[in-house]
Amino acid sequence: MYVYWSYWSANSSGGWTFATVGSASIRPADGSVEGWRYGAGEGAGPSQPPSVSPNFGAACNGTTAVAGKKRVAVVIDSGTAAVAGGPTPPAVVTKCAQVDVNANGTQVLNAVTQTRMAADGMVCGINGYPATGCGVQVSASQLNSPAPGATSGTNESSSSRLPWIIGIIVIVIIGLGAWLISRQQRK
Amino acid sequence: MPLPVTPGRARLPRYLHPGAWWLWAISLAVAASSTANPLLLGLILAVAALVVQARKPAAPWSRSFAVFLKLGLFVVTIRVIFQVILGEPIGSHVLFTLPSVTLPNWLAALRLGGQITLESVIFAACQGLRLAVLIACIGAANSLASAARLLKSMPAALYEVGVAIVVAMTFAPQLIADLGRVRTARRLRGRPDRGLAGAAGAAIPVFEGALDRAVTLAAAMDARGYGRTANLPASVRHTTTGLVIGGLIGVCIGLFGVLQEGSSPWLGPPLLLVGVAAAVAGLWLGGKRAIRTRYRPDPWSWPEWTVTACGAFAAFGVIWAGAADAAAVAASGTPLTWPLLPTAAFVGILIAALPALIAPPLPRSVVDLSTSRPRVAGSARPAQADPAEVQS
């Protein structure tokens, strides 16, 4: 099973509906509530919905409506400690996003949080949780007894330029070799 | 059966078996398709260019690598343009803003114009680069291995298909020359030679000429004994059919089992191997039907094995690195990070550059048509130029 950020929309009966398309393909209406929950899901099955019920009024009462923009409430539930596998997850956060009328779900999320996304648009981390990894695969036993080193995969070389420099130098050397060989053959 | 290899023969100047070059190139292509990391992709491209420059023969068809590189550049440009016009902006470094058009709700994932971010452009460039490097690997195989010699190595069961392909390849230039001649004749007679009327008018003479040539060639080949088949008993033929069909079904189910998660372990690799073995056995058995002798088949000795292994190292290295850390071989999303250089992939791809040294040196060409150098005096080796004869 995988642990990932799942995307929910509030339905008319006060509960949560699992979104069947990605957040980039849905345009939330003005006055709707979006939910994001970090949990474990098996294959295509949904995980748990956010643990608080959707409440647009409580979230967006303090934000006045502006012409040409819409207000969308966003609930971010970082999951339980069992799923965290190490650090304590942050508490549930509710925000109000005021975005362009045509914004889709991803833009609504980006407007109110710091999102870490993979290149194909999958949400990996929200507000720095989890710090690394994207949709990690865990076994059922790991969920019941949180392992301390679950997120110790990559080190902090993501901001280091050294591998990039070494790689560029090697590529240039090889390219130079190819060019020299072609010059030699032309003589 | 390959010729017996005498010691020292492996370093004599000769052409490497074309199948070895294709296996090396396909392994590099597998490595390229498993990653979107621009560093690794650039490394694969550089390695392919180095080996091509070092070991490509001096023949007209071996200069096609540049064409494939230009095609790759075109692919990257088109991909970036599509992302700029249609793609979703990811990330926050806005480069510039185009006038945007609102699309209906069912196209909410696309948008026309709008903000163009650095992250989305880099993502599109990495995806395009992956396809471009894939194309370049196939182009490298095209430049290094002669297609005609590859057809010589076809299994006996596909012998007739191979002959047909060689005939088509030999006659394709003549078809184009025919077309030019017919169009010139039509222009001299004042008839339209462009557009639909021109094409319709030129088609009949060209097809007639091609058919005439094909019938003449068929009669000549038949007179020389091509196309005879052995008289195999019905049981052997039925066994061949059963093995091939059963093998293909086994390969299909085995592939499904390998790709589908959660299926039983018996459905995956074991069935795939059994299917492949059955299909190969069926091909070998079906080859007994073709009666042919092979003239000087290309040897397959340790340089071929080593070149293939070097390519396999690149593929394994990249796939291993991807399995260990998926983020290292992927393009960077948001926030933008410098690309990583996983060690396994780096070493594997560098090993794939060894064929530039390991492959036997090329025989000195007798005449190099590009520079019109004079004939090398006293060359006792027969000209190993591209054989255009219909021979298998």
Q: What is the strand and helix layout of this fold?
A:
The complex is a heterodimer of chains A (187) and B (392).
Chain A: E1 2-10, E2 16-18, E3 33-41, H1 56-60, E4 69-77, H2 81-84, E5 93-100, H3 105-112, E6 115-117, E7 123-126, E8 136-137, H4 140-144, H5 162-186
Parallel strand pairs in A: 3-4
Antiparallel strand pairs in A: 1-2, 1-3, 1-8, 4-5, 6-7
Chain B: H1 18-33, H2 38-55, H3 65-86, E1 94-101, E2 112-117, H4 118-144, H5 147-152, H6 159-188, H7 195-223, H8 234-259, H9 269-286, H10 302-324, H11 343-351, H12 355-358
Antiparallel strand pairs in B: 1-2
Could you list some keywords that capture this structure?
heterodimer, A: alpha+beta, six-stranded mixed β-sheet, two-stranded antiparallel sheet, 8 strands, elongated, B: 392 residues, 12 helices, disordered C terminus
Overview of this structure, please?
- The complex is a heterodimer of chains A (187) and B (392).
- Chain A is built from 5 helices and 8 strands.
- Chain A has 187 residues and is α+β, with helices and mostly antiparallel strands.
- In chain A, the strands form 2 sheets. In chain A, strands 1, 2, 3, 4, 5 and 8 form a 6-stranded mixed β-sheet that branches.
- In chain A, a hairpin with a 5-residue loop joins strand 6 and strand 7.
- The longest helix of chain A is centred in the last third of the chain and has 25 residues.
- Chain A is elongated.
- Chain B is mostly helical.
- In chain B, 58% of the residues lie in helices and 4% in strands.
- Chain B has 12 helices and 2 strands.
- Chain B has a two-stranded antiparallel sheet.
- Classes of the chains: A alpha+beta (187), B mainly alpha (392).
- Chains A and B meet through strand 6 and helix 5 of A and helix 2 of B.
Helix content of chain A: 25-40%
Terminal Cα separation of chain A, in Å?
A: 61 Å
Give the strand line-up of the largest sheet of chain B: 1-2
Number of strands of chain B: 2
Assign the structural class of chain A, choosing from mainly alpha, mainly beta, alpha/beta, alpha+beta, or little secondary structure: alpha+beta
